[in-house]
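Intended use. Records like the one below are meant for learning the mapping from a protein sequence to its folded structure. Do not use them to infer anything beyond what is encoded.
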Amino acid sequence: MTDLLDDAQMQQFITDGYISVRSDYPPEFHQDIYQQIEAMFEGEGNTGNNILPRIPQIQKVFDHPALKGALTSLLGEGYIMNPHRHCHLNPPDSKGQQWHKDCYVFDHNMRHPRFQWVLALYYPQDTTEDMGPTGLLPGKQFHKKVSNADPQLASEPASPLCGEAGTVSLVHFDAWHRATPNYSTKKRYMLKFQFARMQPPEAPSWDHKRRGWEGDASDENRATSVDVWNWLCGNYASDPEASGDTASALVEALGDESESVRLNAAYTLGRMGQSVVPVLIDAMRKETLASIEETTAKPPDNLHGTNPTAGCAAQALSAIGSEAVPGLIDTLTDEHWWVRAMTVDVLTKIGQSAGDAVPVLMERANDEHWWVRRNAIEALGTIGSCSLDATPLLSESLQDEDYRVRRNAALTLAKLGQPADDAIPALVEMLEDENRYNRFYAANALRGIDTSAAREALMNALFTARWCSITTKDNQY
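Structure written out for the chain above:
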């Protein structure tokens, strides 16, 4: 039994970019985890991704009905816990961090309001504001910039994510956040985990009672929020609301200095349907070519130079949905690789109603540029209508020279499930990939295929790699 979120909680998450829930085990449960973390830091240091196998009791936090229900509500059934996780220690007298966005575990996902990932921030101890909790800028998760990355100079109101032991804040992956200064004499531990959607939303996955958006009257991103809500509800239809003259003004507003104005213009255009597709494709091409430097630059919203934000015209085309697909198919052969990559990402965000693009996407899966190949393979898995003929293509992509292409091929095979069992030999080979995360995604694909051959291969690998959580340098045998 899981405790699903209700409509008000879902709309709060969409508007603010976070919601907090609590795994209300007895205090001794969280205290035991805290003490194990203390012993780990003292004896071994920070174990990085191995924090979960080192302290497997943590898994019970995410198995709690409140957490499972909230994650199912936000990400749908079949969501996965990603292999990257980290225990953050904020010691007394720390100065805190600057405002920033996290990277997507060294992959090249495009940031977009239609979120695929959430962060889960767990406190194993009571955490008050003076202990340096995670701070967050509510409502800014859709924005590429804030007034200043320096918290002393930023003008946006911040929220400290505090709470009793067992509190878990579920956060939009693109939220602006930071560790705040710890003015207390206590250590503050926070365990950061990441969860991802595996299937596009077809219907509400929460305790859904009403269809319409109510939201917060002060939401400066209302049009964007409504699009996310409709997408999560499985509603992709356009809703023409404006004349051609109004559309022209909105297209001009895509270049406004205010990011809120640009976003609201984009999602208002996104309700207009096919009539604005040609001008938006032209605008998308221009904004995409102007953003090439953002793909390698390292500002606070893109610290590793890997996760640029989709442009406003691109977001508008995503919101239009199926009516934009014919024009986007034509753009898949653009001469510039970055335009092709962005076009594929738009089709990915459109999702299942972009099925007509599958044949051309299979061609783009062999594009000369790795980013186009990576996006095309992701799109095939998200659109969900790729035929079984894609299995040989995906098996070949597991051998691609680029680790991001290999990773997304494994993810798409996991989504195809049992019909992709011909890919098992290639996935077994990928279990020894040089990239640590790709090994996880290969195992995840075998789990998704779930035939007897896949299960045998997976069990053989897992028993070989078995981690014993009580074996340490002081307790080797």
